[in-house]
Design brief:
Shape: elongated
Structural class: mainly alpha
Helix content: over 70%
Strand content: 5-15%
Number of strands: 2
Radius of gyration: 31 Å
Distance between the termini: 79 Å
Order of helices and strands: HHEE
Strand order of the largest sheet: 1-2
Length: about 110
């Protein structure tokens, strides 16, 4: 049974390629463009069907990383408050009461 199915698929493929080669160049280009559009559409549908889980996982990982960075920045600022003037938090933005002079890079 499997051999028969594979033989039929091979025969259909050979006939389709022979017909494709026999077409005039304009018709061949039109068929190729249609097959490319069909292939791109099928690829987009597969990405939509399988990509939602990956996007969900990436969104969750990004939110966790952002929370970790904010927490680390707050902790570092709290440890440094004894050495510099205090400030206040506005959401996830720290606004110091005074700014130190920036050091020259050279």
């Amino acid at each position: 049974m499997l051999h028969t199915v594979l033989a039929v698929l091979g025969l259909v493929t050979c006939i389709a390629l022979a017909v494709h080669m026999a077409l005039p160049w304009r018709a061949r280009n039109r068929v190729d463009a249609g097959l490319a559009r069909l292939s791109a559409w099928a690829q987009r549908q597969m990405d939509r069907a399988t990509g939602w889980r990956r996007r969900q996982r990436q969104t969750r990982a990004a939110a966790l990383e952002a929370e970790r960075v904010i927490r680390r920045a707050r902790e570092a600022t709290l440890h440094e408050q004894g050495r510099r003037a205090g400030g206040e938090w506005d959401g996830n933005v720290y606004r110091p009461k005074r700014f130190e002079k920036p050091k020259k890079p050279h």
